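FAQ

Q: What does a record look like?
A: Structure on top, sequence underneath. For example:
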């Protein structure tokens, strides 16, 4: 009887493994079909995650969560009006200027390619180089069309996602208001023998993810402001656009510093065509990222995730390709959560006692 029971156990484990794979496949398919809904939910979740410490601080001072939430929304409403009245018009003007100047940049690229072709000496290998230049020049128009389509698609996507932008504050309100109820419900579903252990691990993961998200937002805003001010001072076109791009690129580990400087260097070269101006632009970004790396981040990120660089790059690439912007933003928190959980597993904290 015992032998029969043991002979069926591997089959049950195998069936459980297949069921788990099917469940993950179904979740992936549902996530792809509901990508806009999930994007709205993730946006609301990140905002709620960033705002929750303010409510917790108010609760510690004896204020009810609902009252604190009302005051928070009043302050956010005032900031939103300021943002819509001053920041949005400036960003819109900068974006429209970039779109209008795009054909000029494309024509300059073609002109530069022709000039390089005329300067090539008649020696061995020059035919191949000229062929490459001709090929690149012929593809510039195609690249211009794709760039224009991308810019148009980006603008229209913002317009069609206005519903998500309007819906997010409502979701954030309910996420913040019912936070403790949801947590208590999830904890009640845990087995009694594992409850304390799982809650401790969840708190550790929560501290790591929360610290990273809040710190990264602060770092991105500071980098965007510093880059915009520096580019305004240097007289480089589209400083707001380049500054916002630099702030967003700072999310990327390691290569974000290089990517952030590309638009500013591009516009500096086309306006001034001076090596000195390119050097000044590069030097300005070098100072900004030196301050970011050695002053801002040590103050903002009190605890480092201590992730392996190779694992970090792989996670950013994989999740970025799968989930887009949200994959890039959440790659490091997910990797940190996996590392923390795996560390407890290796130490044997999940063994039955």
């Amino acid at each position: 009887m015992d032998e029969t029971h043991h002979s069926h156990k591997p089959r049950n484990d195998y069936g459980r493994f297949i069921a788990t794979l099917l469940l993950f496949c179904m979740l992936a398919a549902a996530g792809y079909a509901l990508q806009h809904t999930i994007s709205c939910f993730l946006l609301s979740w990140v905002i709620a995650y960033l705002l929750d410490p303010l409510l917790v601080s108010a609760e510690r001072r004896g204020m009810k969560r609902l009252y604190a939430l009302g005051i928070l929304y009043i302050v956010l409403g005032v900031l939103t009006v300021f943002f819509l009245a001053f920041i949005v018009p400036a960003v819109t003007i900068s974006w429209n200027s970039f779109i209008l100047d795009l054909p000029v940049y494309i024509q300059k690229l073609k002109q530069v390619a022709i000039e390089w072709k005329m300067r090539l000496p008649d020696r061995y290998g020059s035919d191949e180089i000229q062929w490459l230049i001709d090929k690149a020049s012929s593809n510039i128009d195609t690249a211009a069309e794709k760039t224009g389509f991308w810019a148009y698609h980006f603008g229209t996507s913002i317009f069609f996602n206005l519903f998500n932008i309007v819906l997010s504050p409502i979701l954030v309100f309910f996420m913040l208001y019912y936070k403790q109820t949801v947590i208590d419900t999830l904890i009640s579903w845990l087995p009694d023998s594992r409850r304390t252990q799982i809650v401790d691990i969840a708190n550790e993961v929560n501290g790591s993810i929360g610290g990273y998200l809040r710190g990264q937002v602060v770092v991105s805003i500071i980098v965007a402001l510093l880059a915009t001010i520096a580019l305004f001072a240097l007289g480089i076109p589209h400083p707001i656009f380049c500054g916002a791009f630099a702030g967003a690129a700072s999310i990327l580990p390691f290569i974000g510093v290089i990517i952030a400087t590309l638009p500013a260097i591009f516009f500096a070269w086309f306006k001034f065509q001076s090596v000195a101006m390119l050097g000044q632009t590069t030097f300005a970004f070098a100072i900004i990222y030196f301050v970011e790396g050695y002053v801002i981040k040590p103050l903002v990120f009190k605890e480092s995730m201590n992730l392996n660089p190779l694992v970090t790059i792989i996670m950013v690439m994989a999740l970025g390709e799968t989930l887009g912007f949200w994959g890039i933003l959440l790659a490091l928190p997910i990797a940190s959560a996996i590392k923390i959980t795996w560390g407890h597993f290796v130490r044997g904290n999940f063994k039955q006692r």
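Q: Is there anything notable about this one?
A: The radius of gyration is 26 Å.
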